[in-house]
Amino acid sequence: MFCNNCGSQIPNGQTVCPKCGANCGQPSPSPYQPQAQQQVIVNSSQQQSNGCATAGFVLSLIGFFISFTFILQLLGLIFSIVGLAKASKLNGTGRGLAITGLIFAILDFIPGVLLIMVLTGAFAAAGSAGVFAVLPAAIL
Description:
By secondary structure, this protein is mainly α. Helices cover 49% and strands 0% of the residues. The protein has helices at residues 51-65, 70-89, 95-128.
């Protein structure tokens, strides 16, 4: 037990502090008594991320600004579709990114497909008009 006045330890059975002489009456309990242990519950369920949706968005965005990179656009389209499918399993996580990546990929595919169609038509028209007939055989 400890003195209420000076805090020094009082031998068991005594009510007067040997250091300051204060009457402590009943022995006071030690201030360092063990506390009751608390139980801490940690919720370890973390929200999963949708990596396919993020990858689809990033690839589509890069492909949108760097035109004529059909590989990035195609990969962005594929990852966005897979990310959209995974979003339903992950309670909607990444759904917005997947949809945005899908929109960017489709918007970037349209000019590329139109360009290929125009060039194919131009080469076909030039070939039927005999433009390529005057070129040397080594070039063909």
